[in-house]
Amino acid sequence: MAKLYFYYSSMNAGKSTTLLQSSFNYQERGMETMLFTALLDDRFGVGKVASRIGLEAEAHTFDDKTDIYQAVTNELKRRKLNCVLIDEAQFLTRDQVFQLASICDRIGIPVLTYGIRTDFQAELFEGSKHLLAIADELRELKTICKCGSKATMNLRTDDKGNVIKEGAQTEVGGNERYVVLCRKHFMELAFS
């Protein structure tokens, strides 16, 4: 039986790198993959999964209106698929998460999703919430806080390094906008 996987972490834990390595592993064995990334994340160009260490690959994009199940079934008319990989999975909708489960259950293709668990206010993203609820396997990717402890939280900052405590849940950015911290240091800064 094909499974739905959710690889989650704070920012800067290597989710995109791991996704690209997984896709490469399939391709190296002569298998076909289909990659997706969020349309709103255009830091490295639209339709690109890119890692901070310089790896990248072209990908299909999704927004809240994309029917991923239909996109995969359309792609299957052109070629065989052995795996579907989703970057920025936190931006999936509830319906899209259930579409991914249907890709596993009805079509028999494993789906590997990669995303951030919580936002800068320690709230679950919609996609992450539903993946945590129904994924067959949950795998945490780890990175470290400035103190050396496991980082699990994302702190948003402005261009001067000041902590941002309010605002829209989604603001695309990297090291210039976010700092990864352990819960203790996050709580000290975000809720002080």
Automatic annotation (TrEMBL):
Which residues are listed for substrate binding in this entry? Y178
Q: Where in the cell is it found?
A: Cytoplasm
Reaction(s) this enzyme catalyzes, per UniProt? thymidine + ATP = dTMP + ADP + H(+)
Gene Ontology CC annotation, any one: cytosol
Q: GO:BP terms for this protein?
A: DNA biosynthetic process; thymidine metabolic process
Q: Where is it chiefly localized?
A: cytoplasm
Quaternary structure and partners: Homotetramer.
Q: Which EC number(s) does the record attach to this protein?
A: 2.7.1.21
Pfam families (UniProt xref): TK
Active-site residues, record numbering mapped to chain: E88 (proton acceptor)
The positions annotated for binding Zn(2+) are C145, C147, C182, H185
Q: Which organism is it from?
A: Paremcibacter congregatus
Q: Which HAMAP family match?
A: Thymidine_kinase
Which top-level group of life is the source organism from? Answer: Bacteria
GO terms assigned for molecular function: ATP binding; thymidine kinase activity; zinc ion binding
The entry sums up its family as follows: Belongs to the thymidine kinase family.
Q: Which NCBIfam families match?
A: PRK04296.1-5
Q: What is the lineage of its organism?
A: Bacteria, Pseudomonadati, Pseudomonadota, Alphaproteobacteria, Emcibacterales
Q: What class of enzyme is it?
A: transferase
Task: List UniProt keywords, sorted A-Z.
Answer: ATP-binding, Cytoplasm, DNA synthesis, Kinase, Metal-binding, Nucleotide-binding, Transferase, Zinc
Q: Give residues annotated as binding ATP.
A: S9, S10, M11, N12, A13, G14, K15, S16, D87, E88, A89, Q90
Under which name does UniProt file this protein?
A: Thymidine kinase
